[in-house]
Fold each of these.
Amino acid sequence: MANSKYEYVKSFELKDNLLPQTWMVLRIDGCHFHKFSQAHDFEKPNDECALRLMNECAVDMLMEFPDMVFAYGVSDEYSFVLKRTSTFYQRRASKIVSLTVSFFSSTYVMKWSKFFPHKELQYPPSFDGRVVCYPSSSILRDYLAWRQVDCHINNQYNTCFWMLVKSGKSPKDAQNRLKGTQTQDKNELLFQEFGINYNTLPEIFRKGSCVLRKEVEEIVKHSEAGDPVRRPRKKIVVQHCDIIGNKFWDEHSYLLSD
Amino acid sequence: MANSKYEYVKSFELKDNLLPQTWMVLRIDGCHFHKFSQAHDFEKPNDECALRLMNECAVDMLMEFPDMVFAYGVSDEYSFVLKRTSTFYQRRASKIVSLTVSFFSSTYVMKWSKFFPHKELQYPPSFDGRVVCYPSSSILRDYLAWRQVDCHINNQYNTCFWMLVKSGKSPKDAQNRLKGTQTQDKNELLFQEFGINYNTLPEIFRKGSCVLRKEVEEIVKHSEAGDPVRRPRKKIVVQHCDIIGNKFWDEHSYLLSD
Amino acid sequence: MANSKYEYVKSFELKDNLLPQTWMVLRIDGCHFHKFSQAHDFEKPNDECALRLMNECAVDMLMEFPDMVFAYGVSDEYSFVLKRTSTFYQRRASKIVSLTVSFFSSTYVMKWSKFFPHKELQYPPSFDGRVVCYPSSSILRDYLAWRQVDCHINNQYNTCFWMLVKSGKSPKDAQNRLKGTQTQDKNELLFQEFGINYNTLPEIFRKGSCVLRKEVEEIVKHSEAGDPVRRPRKKIVVQHCDIIGNKFWDEHSYLLSD
Amino acid sequence: MANSKYEYVKSFELKDNLLPQTWMVLRIDGCHFHKFSQAHDFEKPNDECALRLMNECAVDMLMEFPDMVFAYGVSDEYSFVLKRTSTFYQRRASKIVSLTVSFFSSTYVMKWSKFFPHKELQYPPSFDGRVVCYPSSSILRDYLAWRQVDCHINNQYNTCFWMLVKSGKSPKDAQNRLKGTQTQDKNELLFQEFGINYNTLPEIFRKGSCVLRKEVEEIVKHSEAGDPVRRPRKKIVVQHCDIIGNKFWDEHSYLLSD
């Protein structure tokens, strides 16, 4: 019983390879996470445990997929940068998107109880994903800047909104109070009404999270005399810092070089 | 701080909509499941618990995504048929692939302990996925027949292989013994050497699993006289049957009609 | 001097094969033909010579490309239907579009003087093209109906517009006169003001042009007794008829059968 | 008679936009030009009139399409570079390929008699085309180098082949004589057997043709004293020179800058 009679159906599988020598960015987004965050009683405007779970999944991604050189996450969204020269799965879009989103989702569920030991996962979370190509490092940096600016805008708005709601305003009233306000106005509001200096809030909320490989010195053993012996090692770290300006990229120039 | 300066990066997100009015088939495949099945000590040639876990995930898929009208699974692979008229996520390939594979993966991890109460999940499983369009019902049926023929070929081979190995042959010797054998030869081998009638092995192994919505009569209440009152209801069921011939499709013609 | 050092650039050529077993329709459109028709003083609203040139190019297309089974043209636009089973250039979109549009353009220029013996071609005409896949014969027929309805709507409007302009109205006034009118109103206008019965205008204007292969009896020789001997032969013909209803397709059912 | 009932067919027209901010190269190739060159009795190994006709068509392309910044041609093939920032037809592949190939084909036919005043065009020539994206200037330069190396390899081979054939060898024998020869061997052969110094053959044959805009000083009028008044003007020129090394690109750095 050979299978040749039906094998012609394989011809319907069209190629979806992505342009070589471009930066590929996989962006993952929580699906219906507004509902998910309510079902799991996430703290508002930011739930630090939920963010740390996302970050740990991202760290595991870089561990699992060596072609990922950098990741940036905010809220229920994460962007993973695959290096320009990557030939991961011959750059086939479906393969890359499905495998990575699948791994991320599995990891998220497996690690849930580590970050929420007292909350049971109510139902399977799902994430959508897409891969987008950027032809140059400078456009890639603009992409990442776009996400970080978005983080700032949303976080500032949400911080105000939830402070107003927690202080007794209805969601409707809170919305109206914020309509048309600028960055400066929102900072004023937080300070005047709630004594909050926005710029001192945790960086993980204001800046989002970066995941990258970094050379660190680690103690690998002790000499006979008892002195620690250090060796450089690549380690995956999480940082919360500005990635819009040049400073970060100057200090980590190896990330975008080939 | 408006985001307009960087928003141009959105123009790099190219459209990947699939041709309307074609059957879309999402095929999910376990990634490195050879290693995964060893790490979790799956029974050979078929682990019924692992298959039942896959089937339950598939049932949950049809529950979650109403546009899925049929699914066929074998081993660590599952094909989901989306109806021809589906406009799920405007038929965008990345969205469909990522979301569904993500949901399947999450469900697989969440349900693991139900099917393997005494085995801990060692590491996050991952699945790849792709969506392929088939322009007519008859080609779609050929696709499904292709998968079921494959199921048969592989299962027959694996059944022989593992019987030989379990009876003391080395994997190498087992392979050589089977080289060049036809369907009939393998059936003979099983019968002569091991007293096994291949056709009496469980259908879940020989035919794979079909998942579909079916109208069933269910007792909804009892009359005053104590008689059961039945109502027709759509229910998602799992079956193990031939889907190559016409019989199944004649009996379930609603599956492929619009 | 081998070329291997640079051959990697071939990897940037991505595949663009179209879904097998679907009807492919190549639609060609004159580029800036409003200007082209003015530069060549085309008669308004329809220039029969220009239409007959388009039709002859379409006939040559069916002669050159055997996979084209039908063509429908109106004004400076032509749609060519490639049969569902076609594997022309492995169904690569760029190859199909470029080659056919190129051949059409060359033919148009070469045949120009046959249809316009007293007008010189002022500059090279150009056509754009695209290939679209339709998964079923009934959707293909809807596509062709769409073009013929468009032909009707445009021709009726243009006939009115140019009658008004030729009778002394300014283009602006003609436009205003027609704003909001329905089919029936336009027919009335033509009849009342210009004594024209729209339905008696040439079918080539009202119905557009169909190009197809047809079995015809042709006299191939004469018998000794002087009687003509006829043999059936496939011939490419041009017709102007309704392709929205069933009649044409019933009479030419071989066109859409495989 | 509105057209809304059928307009749904437009949804089958899928997007094919190309990645922004990449160099787009349109490569045009004569279709079956082996036969075409025989039918029109082209001189072998190179027909200068045919090449000059190709070049003039290329010049007209740069005139017609301002986004084309450079073109390189050899034999019946031409590559046109569209600038990285081009948004020509929103970078839709079909539109770009069809329109440009159509214009090239029309121009080729219209200009034929200027270059072949005594030869009639036997039948409509056709060209195929494709657009490929290159993400960086250095890869684009590698692409162009690839074409010029190909020009060199083919021309050297063809020059030898046709000298052997013209001197009385059969095509078969000529082929065998050249099998396995290197660049140096072929140069020797030409020199020893035919007294030809390959490097003194016309550059149009050895280097192919470049088409580009160049700033030139042109006499625009004469002063009252009769002195010529020169003004800088962008002019489209044809050159035959090396484009593999840096020299050309250093001297014309504006071509690849944005």
Amino acid sequence: MKQIQGGVTAAKGFQAAGIEAAVKYRDRKDMALIYSETPCVAAGTFTTNVVKAAPVLWDQRVVKESPYVQAVVANSGIANACTGKEGLDCCEAECRCAGELLGISPDSVLVASTGVIGRQIPVDRITEGIRKLAAAKSHTLEAGTDAAKAIMTTDTVEKEIAVVFEISGKTVTLGGMCKGSGMIHPNMCTMLAFLTTDLQISKQMLQKAVSADVVDSFNMISVDGDTSTNDTLLILANGQADNEAILEEGADYDTFCEALHFVTTYLARKMAGDGEGATALFETKVVGAASKEDARTLAKSVVCSSLTKAAIFGHDANWGRILCALGYSGAQFDPENVDLWFQSVSGSIHIYGNGVACDYSEEEATKILSDPEVTVLVDMHMGEQTATAWGCDLSYDYVKINADYRS
Amino acid sequence: MKQIQGGVTAAKGFQAAGIEAAVKYRDRKDMALIYSETPCVAAGTFTTNVVKAAPVLWDQRVVKESPYVQAVVANSGIANACTGKEGLDCCEAECRCAGELLGISPDSVLVASTGVIGRQIPVDRITEGIRKLAAAKSHTLEAGTDAAKAIMTTDTVEKEIAVVFEISGKTVTLGGMCKGSGMIHPNMCTMLAFLTTDLQISKQMLQKAVSADVVDSFNMISVDGDTSTNDTLLILANGQADNEAILEEGADYDTFCEALHFVTTYLARKMAGDGEGATALFETKVVGAASKEDARTLAKSVVCSSLTKAAIFGHDANWGRILCALGYSGAQFDPENVDLWFQSVSGSIHIYGNGVACDYSEEEATKILSDPEVTVLVDMHMGEQTATAWGCDLSYDYVKINADYRS
């Protein structure tokens, strides 16, 4: 497997576009299209929030019922959540419009929205936007980047990646893009992510791979503990790589899962590091846990702790908050048997062991905590299980961004 | 029942003191003593964090094993958490010293600490502090206030209250004090709270009353979702009101529970409103829930949502975040059947119903959200159960306070 340039247009037969539709934002791209020249099998995972946005309800049905999918239309600015029947009517209008303009069935169109909750999307603007998208769509890498830019809300950079790998002697490409960066918390992690691949695979195996993967990728990140109403991960596979179709588990499936995990983890880390107001990516690796479930719970608890996040922002080696967050996670352990390290490109220091603080240098700790990527390594000494979670620090800018997000 | 002046010295036979011991802070009171002239039955509830501070481990044993308790020694500045054997030795030294100076058994002394985790308490300073406390102790209301000031960390005001009520023809007094204001999250809510009463009651019934009460008082507040290592609620009852002893449930027990709930709710609200960096008390009342458990879960989820808290700080009627927080709480419901109101002394506006936004005035909403106490009323229309949770907004100052708390 090898990383290459590009995003959602990297795989064969995929086109994309990102344009300005003024759905809510002005003077920036706010609508994206992903289009496959041939029908795709599609799979998806969606928010577990009881309050689901209209596009989530819409896509859940399409992914389940439509045998093939050929396009995704997404907008930023307005989430189309808590919008009642009018919100679902908007999804229908989008699919009908996109179907007509792209010459495909409306049932093969997926939709996604992100932005402020509770406001209705102006349907005339969004259909006019689809017209522009259909005209602008292209297979270039730039078109993929335009799409990645168009789905951003409070993100500061677009997030895309592509990889190639071999399946039954054929080169397969997998590309993706995603956006954060507030209301980011697992289950399904609060975000939009779109993956495209020319892999030939059954719908069932595609769904299986994605569902298994998110548990240790997107669902292991948190910016603020708020699980959104709009979380959506969609993957489209059009089969143009012409590999022997993956219809069951085996070596080919494993190769795909490995590439998938590389891509989703890359995007998840980007999302965490670009969390609202973030100045640092904050990673927590738990090793030696008694169970996988415990490892995940412990790692997640640390990256979700407001106090720990504020300390990371302040480059303050306040490790007591980390131990505290492990302690209230719900996992059982003996605090006397835990070891903690702070790590970054600047080095690694042992900070807690045998139930008390180690004799570390505060200066060295501050240096490590001043790097843009900071890792807390936790050894529970209870077993062999590991997990990694990703978050970011809590800064003044998080408050600033969210105190008046709607205006 | 009637509220009166005072705090922990309001009830008959109780004395207190607050003095400067320079445990960590300089030029401010940082050690408190509560002393009863006669032996008390005691009850307590403690943090559920796996990582328990030394004084928590110590007090759990004393409350369980000692038939009578007569004093509480508390310090702020250092939490005596993650301090290993040396931390427990410190507790022992405190109790021995206090026992000698007060002329009581060391087994009848409780200890409590709050502040930074992972640092050892200088035992010489704390024993010198106990000497000062023993000399300064007094039954005046000022002495109670001194004690309330001495347990403060990032709190901006001391928090105390006292009430009187009648039991079997006798006037009983119940007083209390507590401190917040970071690492505040239930189970047992992250805090120190000390209650004193001259009620005559069995230890068993006292524990029963306190354990039942915290579920709907202290455990319903959250400042930042971090459950501390040090949470401690202690109540001492010395029987000097000379009422017929409460030995079982009944009218007398109910009268006491009512007074207890008034006092704990008062202190809990004070703690939430004085959360780190808070500019407003943020209350969420859930009515019409299917079960009590659901009502509590829903109310807590809203006051814990970082995004909602930031919106309250910005006086921004971003109700979508509230619906989102209800949705990921874990409770099941139909979003189309929920009604939301914003309320304050300035008025009440219906903001969401029938699955969409109501036609409310943003100006009026901003006015309500600019008051120092803001309530979100949520009607689930699913049953008769209710719950109220208390939190505060998320401000720049929360980040400021916690980015460099240790220095």
